[in-house]
Amino acid sequence: MKLTDTEKVTPEALFLSRRKFLKLAGILGVSAALAACGIQPQTETSTATGVPITGVLENTPFPGDTLTPYELVTNYNNFYEFSLNKEDVAQKAANFKTSPWQFTVSGLVNNPISLDVSELIKKYVIEERVYRMRCVEGWSMVIPWLGFPLQKLLAEAGVRSDAKYVKFTTPYDHDQFPNDGAYGFAWPYTEGLRLDEAQHDLTLLAIGLYGKALPPQDGAPIRLVVPWKYGFKSVKSINGIELVSEQPQTFWSSASPTEYGFFANVNPAVPHPRWAQDTERRIGELERRPTELFNGYSEVAFLYEGMDLVKNF
Ligand SMILES: Nc1nc2c(c(=O)[nH]1)N[C@H]1C(S)=C(S)[C@@H](COP(=O)(O)O)O[C@H]1N2
Ligand SMILES: [Mo]
After folding, report:
1. Per residue in 161-181, is it b (16+ CB within 10 Å) or e — as a string?
2. pTM (2 decimals)?
């Protein structure tokens, strides 16, 4: 995909001007302002790629970081189902079909859910969350996501008391993912969280970025975002969530348990055999900067009290 100069700058410029509107909405009282503009948060969300998502509630401040430009967020991607080359993913994923897209919540729940994702997302108020994202390869971005906290979906499903972990699944569909099956990996891509991690308010199910529906390369139609963990935990294009009693096997820890732990909390004190973990490079910048424990999200530290973070990496 080749972007024209206008396309390169427009989404970000639009996004920033819309943010100004949202700030104003905040001052006026969000619901009154949204009503005045005829915005209906519950009905105008869409999963179609690139479609603007309106009626978003902005409830988290900027973390004081500069946003990574839209062009970089959508053209520098890890998505092994399409390509191992980060700059190729956007083009290889361009025809990815995200409708229909059945989404299920199953396992140890009282009310299993099975819905098309377009129906699922209508049930939730879509929020904007600006999060830092740190890849284990030593690079990072700052991305304005749109989505809703996973805990809301879990509450609706009614998690049973014997559930201890959450497993995330992706389709095993060779027609859609040209690479799945390749390189001896344990396809399809799966991930997992401990239940309390999944229920933390920071843990997001994202359906958009920069004010629009997710493009395929960033995990359309719905993906996980866990900002205090390395990027590989934030599994893209998920079609199912399963509540389980045992720690699930995951794609990356099956590939190399000594390199990719189950917890994968961003931690400058845990070395990696191939990449420096005490510093990182923001995509779009040249200088490296120090990496922070939990990617700077110290509010999650209580989840790991008494745990040896180096052993349990
Ligand atoms: N299904 C799937 N999800 C995935 C990956 C992948 O290869 N397949 N790569 C992960 C890695 S390593 C990173 S760093 C992030 C990158 O997200 P982004 O391309 O939207 O920045 O997605 C994660 N989610
Ligand atoms: Mo990554």
Report:
1. eebebbbbbbbeeeebbebbe
2. 0.88
Residue of the CA atom closest to atom 12 of ligand 1: 232
Q: Give the DSSP letter of residue 129.
A: E
Torsion of CA 217, 222, 228, 231, to 10 degrees: -30
Contact indicator for 55, 109 with CB cutoff of 8 Å: no
| 43-93 per-position pLDDT tens digit | 457 778 888 887 787 655 565 689 999 999 999 999 999 999 999 999 999
CA distance 89 to 68: 18
Q: Measured from the CB, is residue 144 less than 6 Å from ligand 1? A: no
Task: Indicate if ligand 1 lies below 6 Å from the C-beta of 199.
Answer: no
169 lines ligand 1 (CB under 6 A): no
CATH number of 13-304: 3.90.420.10
- The residue extents of the domains of the chain are 13-304
Ligand 1 binding pocket mutation candidate from 145, 190, 234 (most atoms within 8 A of CB) = 234
* Residue position matching structure tokens 């389980």: 244
List pLDDT tens digits, range 126-158: 999 999 999 999 999 999 999 999 999 999 999
CA of 244 to the centre of ligand 1 (A): 23
Of the listed ranges 65-69, 96-100, 132-136, 209-213, the least confidently predicted one is: 65-69
Task: Fill in the amino acid letter for 12.
Answer: E
Instruction: Verify whether ligand 1 is closer than 6 Å to residue 77 (CB atom).
Output: yes
Q: Which tokens is 164 given?
A: 């201890």
Q: What is the pLDDT of residues 19-34, one digit of tens each?
A: 644 443 433 333 333 3
Q: What angle do CA 204, 266, 128 make, to 5 degrees?
A: 25
